[in-house]
Amino acid sequence: MGKAVLTGKHFWYGDIAIAEGAIAAGCRFFAGYPITPASEIAEHISRRFPEIGGIFIQFEDELAAMAAILGASWAGAKSMTATSGPGLSLMMENLGLGVVMEVPTVIVDIQRGGPSTGLPTLTAQGDVMQAKWGSHGPYEIIALSPDSPQEAFDLTIRCFNLAEKYRVPVILLASETVGHSAGKVIVPPEDEIELIERKKPTVPPEEYLPYKPDEDLIPPMACAGEGYAICTTGLTHDEKGYPDVSAEAQEKLVRRLNDKIRKHREEIVDVEEENMEDAKIAVVSYGQVSRPAKRAVKIAREEGIKVGSIKLITVWPFAENVIRKWSKQVETFIVPELNYGQIYLEVKREAAGNSETVLIPRMGGRLITPQEIYREIKKVSK
Amino acid sequence: MSWKMTKEKEPFLSEELHPMDRWLRSERMPHIWCAGCGIGSTLYAWARALDSVGIDRKKVVYVSGIGCCGRGSGYLNVDGFHTTHGRAIPFATGIKLVKPNLCVNVISGDGDLFSIGGNHFIHACRRNVDLLVICTNNFIYGMTGGQLAATTPLGDYSTTSPYGNIEPPFNTPYLADASGAVYVARWTSIHVRLLEKSIAEALRMKGFRYIEVLSPCPVNYGRRNKLREVDAIAKWFWQSSVIKHDADTSEVQIEKGKPIILGNFVKREKPSYYEELKRLEEKVKRAAEAKK
Q: What integer pLDDT is reported at residue B20 of this predicted model?
């Protein structure tokens, strides 16, 4: 058997770092469909998995790939797929099934310019709202956004841990410029990588109710072939997993599916704050844009402007408490993003009544430069 | 008999156990299927076949899609997965590849497997994934109220072909055969014993096995197509069917007024997807060792 965790220093593309992060997290089932700019993840895994006993399968489309990773997870594997906008659109169907069946799995979205076929080879952050609301019905989701190959590696592992812990599909929301830029990636020794595994039932099969949650709102998960005669469905269901298409059952189930994320918001949400202590202006960014954002803040600070940076590591659930807290001190939030205002609206909603929120929009295709953000900081500081 | 009447009487819940009771989630009865529907007898034949082959109930996985037949996975006392419309096959593929020792079955309808799920069907045949796929073909979308299907015979009426169907239907055994399935058969839900034998034969094999089960839908197919009585479709099957094992699948298209060809059409051997996957793994390992 080949080595799974490649402990050491590497020079990797973001896409490769994601693939290696998944392997280090224990992912042994990957289903995908080729798409620019995410194909390198599938290519790398197709080469690596036979060495380490993982199962790689290229499907006929993203609908099938997404269905297969749910099935694989139900069989007990840690599973993943990787795609870009057009593929993510197709995956929304079974992402909803994953939410309602409570299936731990990871979906990587290397964002490119949209709508539709858009800009296949160029970067964007246009899928933020789709990641949250793309499948039908009311639900909560977890999405993390990396800004570099190193963070792509680290956050892929965290995606698996969150998926296993909360029994939910987790989205790694990267972008083309993260997937296709190379950088140093340090892979720690295997025993230093903290992994979380899904809760298993502690009662015998005759007492097991597949959708009876513990106090943390998360039900323990029996898998196929373990003798529990699991019953699961995309229909609204009761604790036995039996279809119950009543308003009461819907209220109970959907409320819990939302609450199991909402009530753990504080545990899940992760932000990186810099220079915020006395900041009157804050640049709120996520993913690749965090890098020019931090650079711009640094330059402006050197000129004595009281500006800080809030980088969202978790895009969903949104760090609403963080924004609300700082809105009491900060006069203006600046949100640069590679779309026409998605996280901007979330920030604006939380800052409303206390602070102004300014958007630096970019449709995608090219990055926002530190100079552009710096100019905006200068403008609002006057 | 309407569902409501059955529910009020509730005669069968306590009195006598069904012979296949241990395969059922009896507490979920009565089921949602209409009188005259063929899904129940198909599942009966399937459960009997599992018994006759001696497969441990704990190793049985039942994956279904959406539609009347989709509900079956929730009535059987096995690991049951009621998935999305058309995606039962890829979902089942994920389970089977991770746990190859499980007996993974996809039992779904014609709309699910051949319209919305058609692409997955042909690709799973091509890959020869280890799955037993049973299609209860009732020529119509039953659950949604009788709309045109990819299996509705030419000229037939449905709620979305009110002037008659102008689309030629799929000949599903031919499609499975041409796409590479290792076992292809067709029976009807009234040929319960022969169907059971066919399922048992398929359960003993590896690779992608396909059995089409023609199944009456008096409520949503029969009533618009001069087969209104509850047993009219069963009678049509009985009177028109001809058993012809090893028939050329290109010649088994279902056409009104012509014989319905039933039988075990295809049985061939070739390595399954999982076997090929393991062979590939060995090759990679040997190459890595040779390098050392």
A: 86
H or E element that contains A72: helix A62-74
Q: Choose among A61, A64, A229: nearest Cβ to B77.
A: A229
In chain A, which among 211-250 make CB contacts under 8 A with chain B?
A: 224-235, 241-243
Measured CA distances, B233 to A194, A220, A376, B218 (Å): 61, 46, 74, 7
Architecture of domain A271-381 in CATH? 3-Layer(aba) Sandwich (3.40)
- In angstroms, rounded to a whole number, what is the distance separating the alpha carbons of residues A244 and B191? 34
From-to residues of CATH 3.40.50.970 in chain A: 8-192
**Contact between chains at B93 and A57 (C-beta distance less than 8 A):** yes
Q: Which residues pair with B219 in a beta bridge?
A: none
- Here the tokens at position A82 are 């990787």
Residues of chain A with CATH 3.40.50.920: 271-381
User: The pTM is what?
Assistant: 0.96
The CATH number that domain B24-291 falls under is: 3.40.50.970
Fold of the A8-192 domain? Rossmann fold (3.40.50)
Q: Are strands A105-113 and A119-123 parallel, antiparallel or unpaired?
A: antiparallel
B168 close to B156: Cβ distance less than 8 angstroms: no
With the C-alpha atoms ordered A163, A167, A173, A179, is the resulting torsion angle positive or negative? positive
Sort B258 into a burial class: Cβ within 10 Å, 0-12 / 13-18 / 19+.
exposed
pLDDT for A186-220, tens place per residue?
Answer: 999 999 999 999 999 999 999 999 999 999 999 99
Pairing of the two strands A314-316 and A142-144: antiparallel
Complex ipTM value: 0.97
User: Where do the DSSP E strands lie in A94-208?
Assistant: 105-113, 119-123, 142-144, 169-175, 182-187
Q: Where are the domains of chain B?
A: 24-291
Sign, CA torsion A337/A340/A342/A347: positive
Interchain contact A76–B (C-beta under 8 A): yes
State the amino acid at position B256 in one-letter form: K
